[in-house]
Amino acid sequence: MNAPLNIDLHTHSNCSDGVLTPAELVAHAAAAGVHVMALTDHDSVAGLDAARSAANEFRVGLVPGVEISSSWRAQAIHVLGLWIDPAAATLRDMLRSQAELRRVRMRGICTRLEKIGLPGAALLGAVEAQPGIPTRSHLAAALLAAGHIARIDEAFRKYLGKGKPGHVPIEWPALPQVIGAILSAGGVAVLAHPGRYLLSGGARQRLLADFTAAGGTGLEIMSGGNGAQHVEASTVLALKYGLAGSVGSDFHSPQFVWNPLGRSLKLPDCITPVWRGLLP
């Protein structure tokens, strides 16, 4: 009997808020025993060509992907687009708009930080010097490097989280619009890390109902360091709404040892894999 595939359909490179280049990420995945991976950078497909070249070299199956921020009832919701055509016009247009939204937000955040005595202009320069589109994770790293915080998570608790001095709200495109862009690119829309959103049980079910009504067909059952309780809750939702299951580490950095690539994430037997019929 053949050994099961080691699949990871949620990873990030330095084209968004990961630390490895796309080629380094693929090499790291190969060394960790991953057979099939998706590169799903935030609102960017810039790393896919380099990842594809590395995947051919290391004999890793590469699923072209992206993680797009959307808005649902004033809540930011992340949707993975898997098996996308990164050259599709509607998707490209959306990602260009997303990148500009992020750049405008970053300038606004740094202006607010300047008003409370932090070197906003210098922090903005540090963020913009990084590859890829600017994210709050980049800014948190800049705050840490400059000695303004002791830990990355402190940046969000003190400055960047909702209600904090540097918080700048952003209106992402509506959930159906994001799903539509993924579908127009020939992709499969998967709701990322469903347990991470601050929603009541009823609101989470309404989210899943709206997600499926808009054409979403997958739910990330295994994500990051989620425990058995999360897997069980996500499995119940997937079965109720007829969604296929996906697995992904949401990998960002080898330094996050609690969330490695190659953990042999496995779906419950009762869940249809989102990759069924899509992998050779």
Could you name the key traits of this structure?
280 residues, alpha/beta, 7-stranded mixed beta sheet, DNA polymerase, domain 1, single chain
Question: Could you characterize the architecture of this molecule?
Answer:
There is one protein chain. The chain is an alpha/beta fold and 280 residues long. The protein has a domain at 100-160: DNA polymerase, domain 1. Helices cover 40% and strands 16% of the residues. Strands 1-2-3-4-5-6-7 form a seven-stranded mixed β-sheet. The model has no long low-confidence stretch (mean pLDDT 94).
Question: What is the gist of this entry?
Answer:
The chain is of the alpha/beta class. The protein has 9 helices and 7 strands.
Percent helix range: 40-55%
Mean pLDDT: 94
Radius of gyration: 18 Å
Report the order of strands and helices: EHEHEEHHHHHEHEHE
Question: What percentage of the residues does DSSP assign to strands (E)?
Answer: 15-25%
- Could you please say which CATH topology of the domain at 100-160 applies here? DNA polymerase, domain 1
- Contiguous low-pLDDT stretches (5 residues minimum) are none
Class per helix and strand makeup: alpha/beta
CATH architecture of the domain at 100-160: Orthogonal Bundle
Number of strands: 7
What distance separates the N and C termini? 17 Å
User: What is the CATH top level name of the domain at 100-160?
Assistant: Mainly Alpha
Biggest sheet details: 7 strands, mixed
| Separate helix tally | 9
Q: What topology, given as strand order, has the largest sheet?
A: 1-2-3-4-5-6-7
Approximate shape: globular
